[in-house]
Amino acid sequence: MKAFLLDAVTTQIVSSVYSQTEILSKQVYLVTRLDEDDKKRQQRQPQEVVTTEVGHLTALVFCRPTPANIDYLGRELSSPRFRHYHIYFSSVLSTGLLRLLAEHDRWERVASVQEYFADFVPINPDLWTLQSTAHSLVLTTAAGTSWAPKYAAQYERQLQGLQSMLLAMKRQPTCIRYAGHSACAEELAQDLHEAILADDIFHFRGAVENNMHNMHNMHNMHTTTMNTTTTMNTTNTNTATNGGLVVLILDRRDDPVTPLLSQWTYQAMVHELLGLNNHRVVLKGAPNLEDNAELNEVVLSATQDAFFAKHLHSNFGELGEAIQFLLRDYQTQSAQHSSATQNFASLEEMQAFMEKFPQIRSQSYTVSKHVAILSELARLVETCSLLDVSQLEQELATSDDHSNHWRQLMEKLASPSIKVPDKLRLGLLYALRYETVGNLHMVQSAMSKGGVPQDWIQLLPILLRYAGKQARGPGLFGHYEHFSSKPNGLVLSKLMTKSFFLSNVVLLPSGGGADNIYAQHVPLVMETVQAVTKGKLSTRTHPIVPGSCRRPNLTAAAASTLIPSEVLIFMVGGITYEEGTKIHEFNVSNGSGGGGGGSGTTTTTTNSSSGHANSSAASLEPWQSNVQGKQHVVLAGSTVHNSTSFLDELRATSL
Fold this sequence. Notes:
globular, 23 helices, 655 residues, 6-stranded mixed sheet, alpha/beta, 7-stranded mixed sheet
């Protein structure tokens, strides 16, 4: 029997892959937080006696290697509640912190200390995040300034998270590249390179010579504390993709457009309109759900919901059809189940009925949950006139037509049917597109007359200072600056875009049409992905960290033309679900599936008393298939933004 002790960050990591039921199945009967336990301990009066007897339990501790957590553990170990402690740190533990931990263990209750590299949240197999929501955008503006030290803790979180991703993948990069205009991206790339050089743990044996491709899926974790990912062992025999792993560090300010757009795929749409936090969606207060307390808060997790796993990238039209099919299937099975209760001919039939009953009940909840979410999404689409709003958003993001855009914008800003947050987003998109030629003062005046609060209107100049033409890198509005040579016949505005036709607000049928007006925009990161995977990413816009090329006698110019087999993109300032969907589509179309990369999660075991350490790898399950010579991309970032969180973070920049 075990207890599971977590911190605030690792609680999110574990909850992203484990349900309470699954934790219980591992004989874990107590889950608690280190910081909360410490607070209770300090509030307790000296004469108070702890009545809860847990001394028979073994404690599994999973936390980040921070001084605060070492302090919590120190106070826990000074008056130990559990028989033994097995401590797992989610990233590299410094020698100083390890020594401090050993000094606290005067009762010798610590049985083992391990580094279990999972210092990030695997939302999807190819979409990872640090869930670092505080000051994610400020990092990019503070870098290189006198006020950068104020955000040193947030910066260190980015660096440690990125290191953990590489260690979880068991990859040492062939080269490290960064957005050349971004001081934050450059600093992070340099520090990552120095960390790799300084620690032998990054030097995986045979990684260069054999170029093994053990594709790592961080979406499913199945070890005693938590499981990182599934594995795929593949020897790459395709000489066209012999560039190993390229780490590419980007900056959110290069593409401020994507977080401001309405979304039309399931996962992204839920996050934009309802909020998707730690896989939870709050429906409390939604019309027509007042009498159903069971649906006040629901879980949308691909590891626990097969329907969501299958359709999280489906557009709104496809989703409507899929839920109709799900409902019909449930009605059929429910009818069969009801008829079976009419007459039991034997005890075996009664037993079969009882065995199937939980499955029917679970299916009923799944159907109710997705129907409720779809109904609320459809209501918001209609109430907020999002079809109309989204059409103009897409046009502003993808085309230059000033006179037409100006006319439509003025109509929308004056329209009472358009909600205030949507008016704000339209005004911001117009300002980004027509920063130098548009009458922004008149736009601000029209926004004010349309009911947009003055403090919201001030976000327009803040946005331009954050990500205007003078602040962001090249390529936002499709000038192909990322390519070392302009691609022939490449139409990025249609690349990787899954078309669909929205013809009904409640149940939207999917359909064709390559020029769909609601799916014209393709995030800037896809231009970068196309360039780097073709070996055409310009060193002018995305330099290589000096010394980071691991292959001997390889110049930076030659390294830039290598075609990588794996790409890890880390975006400082946050990513979006739209970008995650496009990366997923790239991986699927490229034949590499949706998994991550790596042969397993490296663990370093240390006895806190003896100081003896040895390295091992976590036990992992095989992946679904072996794919040779395919390129695979993983997108990671500080956090996952919707328009609300992006604008909140923009306010915090104080530009």
